[in-house]
Design brief:
It is a single chain. The protein is an alpha/beta fold and 232 residues long. It contains 5 helices and 13 strands. The chain has one domain: Alpha/Beta hydrolase fold, catalytic domain (Rossmann fold, 3-Layer(aba) Sandwich), CATH 3.40.50.1820. The strands form 3 sheets. The chain has a 9-stranded mixed sheet with strand order 1-2-5-7-6-8-9-12-13, with helices on both faces. Strands 3-4 form a two-stranded antiparallel ribbon.
Length: 232
């Protein structure tokens, strides 16, 4: 699993002496403290964003490269972005709960972000994080749009099912690699075809599950979707 090491202190925009990144110390869920980082946006940002990481039992954390590059894409629009570790990952308290308790972790993060910014929310998740996030965010009136990166259909001996997307009317983006072994093209296309519109599917040619060497293409697709639906 890819990882980017970040310093968990406050970073400043030296031109304006304003913080760009800070640790979140007051985010808690049913399992206890949730470790999180907040990349601050502009004061007039029309949306706030929450991004979820891949499977923690396989090394997934909020420092994953795909998660980091998704955050950078949203931050490029001046939007505040919250990343957090699911229970049992990093310094988050609790133990892994096979995607069940992790839904409560995300709900706590969404509640925190809504309280902090009081504006519509966008969601993005990678792999396991996208599966958890789609389930939590579908139908939530606070969530204006959802992006699933590397949507898993069959991974780790487990099949993922997405029939609930047929009643999910928020704008949805799916970005997958044509060589993603956890989300084969025919299976992902069936999922997206069954989702309520608007739902857009973007294939990154020759990319694997982790978009290795193709992160820029992933970012471009995510940026185009944000521009189309939220920041014309």
């Amino acid at each position: 699993m890819f990882r980017i090491t970040e310093t968990r202190s406050i970073h400043y925009d030296t031109a304006m002496d304003t913080p760009l990144l800070r640790s979140v110390d007051n985010l808690r869920g049913p399992a206890g403290r949730i470790e999180a980082l907040l990349n601050l946006g502009g004061p007039d940002a029309p949306y706030a964003v929450v991004v979820c990481h891949p499977h923690p039992l396989f090394g997934g954390t909020m420092h994953n490269k795909v998660v980091y590059h998704a955050m950078k894409t949203f931050q490029g629009f001046g939007l505040p972005v919250l990343r957090f570790n699911f229970r049992g990952a990093g310094l988050s308290e609790g133990t892994h709960d096979n995607g069940h308790g992790e839904k409560d972790d995300l709900r706590a993060a969404l509640d925190w972000m809504q309280q902090e910014y009081n504006r519509p929310l966008l969601f993005a998740g990678f792999s396991f994080g996208s599966s958890v996030g789609l389930r939590v965010c579908c139908g939530d009136p606070r969530i204006s749009g959802m992006a699933a990166l590397g949507l898993p259909v069959s991974a780790g001996g487990r099949d993922y099912h997405y029939s609930f997307l047929s009643s999910c009317s928020q704008p949805k983006l799916f970005i997958s690699g044509t060589e993603d072994r956890y989300g084969p093209r025919p299976a992902v296309e069936v999922v997206v075809a069954s989702a309520a519109p608007p739902a857009k599917l973007v294939w990154v040619e020759s990319a694997d599950h982790f978009f290795a060497g193709k992160l820029e293409q992933m970012q471009l697709a995510l940026r185009a979707w944000v521009e189309e639906h939220f920041l014309p």
